[in-house]
């Protein structure tokens, strides 16, 4: 009997070791491929994942649509991509990127930390079409700012009729651009800045993260400017097929992302301060308030349409009002 037990024990250990040795493929979207910041962060995450029982094989993808399609087709067991595209898998997490929802990096850190906390573990898992998905992490990419080729476009009113590059898969962008009277030009994440640089569009929204790699300065030239006012916070989500990973992997992964938030925001702050001051156009207090109200109206509308998650809208409002209690919206209902 003792021999049988020992044999069974050894066999179990071998099976466990074999299961741990199985590789999981994770598609990572980064415009710069292996040399990009997102891919480099994914490498650090993959190294840590060994300690949670997974052998990760990172698959770089410079086209986000390809990364998503590979995930859908089962070629990848997880995918790391922008929340605007990942929102289809988890609306709660994907709504952190709502219009005006996160007006600063400090609020972004609060929102991401709260979302990835153990108390929200249930919200990290979704069942769609009989398939289960889990959010394994959220990484900040920084605030999106509006860049214009002509600094004379210094207000929303002057944006009327101007061409604005929007990501065709994100309805929120299209709706908001149309609300201010601009002309939405459907684009992809791989070419939206190129359209700005070569003059096909007059305006584009992008984070400081993209300034140097995508050469936004070419579009700005001598006459361009950047509205020094965050329109939304851009994040990237890690979406897993939980059955392909060890038990409790998801929470361990989320904890890792939270632990690395300070490092990520230090990088973002460095990139934002790296944009030349000559391009930064500061808004008047009156214009800032006007834009905040416009973005709030847009959020309320998009939440009613089912694009944003109401629970996350409530979380973000609490975060905003904890930082700025005097803000006009703190005494208003609706979020």
TrEMBL record:
InterPro entries: AdeT1/2, TRAP_DctP_sf. Residues 1-21 form the signal peptide. Keywords: Signal. It holds the Pfam family AdeT1_2. The keyword Signal applies. It comes from the Bacteria. This is RND transporter.
């Amino acid at each position: 009997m003792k021999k049988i037990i020992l044999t069974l024990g050894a066999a179990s250990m071998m099976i466990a070791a074999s299961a741990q040795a199985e590789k999981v493929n994770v598609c990572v979207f980064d415009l710069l491929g292996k040399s990009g910041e997102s891919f480099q962060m994914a490498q650090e995450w993959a190294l840590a994942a060994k300690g949670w029982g997974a052998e990760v094989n990172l698959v770089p993808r410079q086209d986000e649509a390809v990364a998503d399609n590979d995930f859908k087709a089962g070629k990848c067991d997880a995918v790391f991509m922008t929340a605007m595209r990942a929102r289809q898998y988890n609306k709660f997490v994907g709504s952190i990127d709502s219009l005006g929802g996160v007006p600063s990096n400090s609020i972004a850190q609060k929102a991401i930390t709260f979302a990835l906390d153990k108390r929200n573990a249930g919200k990290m898992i979704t069942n769609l079409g009989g398939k289960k998905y889990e959010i394994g992490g959220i990484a900040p990419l920084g605030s999106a700012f509006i860049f214009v080729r002509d600094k004379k476009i210094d207000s929303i009113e002057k944006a009327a009729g101007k061409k604005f590059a929007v990501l065709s898969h994100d309805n929120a962008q299209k709706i908001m651009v149309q609300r201010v009277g601009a002309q939405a030009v459907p684009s992809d994440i791989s070419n939206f800045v190129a359209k700005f640089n070569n003059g096909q569009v007059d305006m584009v929204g992008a984070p400081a993260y993209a300034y140097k790699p995508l050469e936004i300065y070419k579009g700005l030239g001598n006459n361009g400017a950047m509205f020094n006012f965050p329109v939304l916070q851009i994040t990237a989500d890690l979406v897993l097929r939980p059955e392909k990973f060890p038990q409790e992997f998801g929470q361990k992964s989320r904890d890792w992302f939270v632990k690395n938030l300070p490092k990520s925001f230090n990088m973002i702050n460095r990139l934002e301060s790296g944009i030349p001051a000559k391009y930064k156009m500061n808004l008047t207090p009156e214009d800032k308030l006007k834009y905040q109200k416009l973005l709030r109206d847009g959020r309320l509308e998009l939440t009613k349409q089912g694009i944003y998650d109401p629970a996350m809208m409530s979380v973000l409002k609490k975060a905003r009002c904890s930082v700025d209690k005097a803000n006009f919206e703190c005494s208003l209902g609706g979020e």
